[in-house]
Description:
- Strands 3, 4, 6, 7, 9, 10, 12, 15, 16 and 17 form a 10-stranded mixed sheet that branches. Strands 2-1-5-8-11-13-14 form a 7-stranded mixed sheet, with no helix packed on it.
- It contains 4 helices and 17 strands.
- The protein has one domain (21-284).
- It has helices spanning 3-13, 197-202, 227-234, 259-273, and strands at residues 23-33, 36-46, 48-51, 62-67, 77-84, 89-94, 98-100, 108-116, 121-125, 129-131, 136-145, 150-159, 171-181, 184-195, 212-219, 240-246, 249-256.
- The chain is globular.
- Helices cover 14% and strands 46% of the residues.
- A hairpin with a 2-residue loop joins β1 and β2 (36-46).
- The protein is mostly beta strands.
Amino acid sequence: MSDRRQSRTQSIDAPLPALARSKGQIDLVFAGTGTGTRLARAYQSGCLRVRWPQDPASRGPCAVMMNTAGGLTGGDALTINAEWQDHASGTLTGQAAEKIYRARDGHAAIKTTIRLAPHSSAEWMPQETILFNRASLRRDMQVEMSATSRFLGVEATVFGRAAMGETMEEGHYREGWRIRRDGRLIYADALELDGPISALLQRKAIGAGARASATLILVSGDAESHLETVRERSAEACGAIAASHWNGLLAVRFAAPDGHELRRDMTSILSTLRAGRPLPRVWSC
């Protein structure tokens, strides 16, 4: 074997070099004042940034998260910590849809922890997460709240961009929710899809052919009063929507053929639960 051929064989067999990983973290504190709410703390590091433009549609400040890395892949991680103090209110959203690209190894991780003091009101409204083929994502949501606080949160996922002719044929996706009120667990949910995701979503008990889904949770003293209104609006949906109420919370599930129709359905229900107020302006950019 010539030296050139031997060198080429060794280079093919050699392990791939380690890739740089994107890490980002934000820590926010919304503080109530006599005249409204202000941001008392806004820490940011790595690829994750936060801005707070004026948004009259929001109750209190509207903080907008930005991932300057442009997306995530295996080994990347985002950590979001947000606290609403007594009588504070505000919205936390994302500048654009988060993109999860093909993973060479490992998982992309997004961990969110939200804490609500008494009489506070928090809205967690990131835009949808788009999973590309062979992406791997683990997303975790932890909420700790008081019996007198209000939480409205949504997480949406698109399995390949239908408008671009993309399909998430295979990969890994895991999402978990835990909500505690006065220290007591009131909501726990976990979903994991692994392997042939496109085929799994075709199954009636999993996705019935849907390629986009979302979970919306409202925890408040008046959650039950919204149930019938949400069900009435669901009759006009592009996809499928189901809503249930128990234990002081309202849970709404969405399944749609693509991300565009999912967003239309979410916008309709979110506007209803936000007393007709429009969504944050970044949702329409």
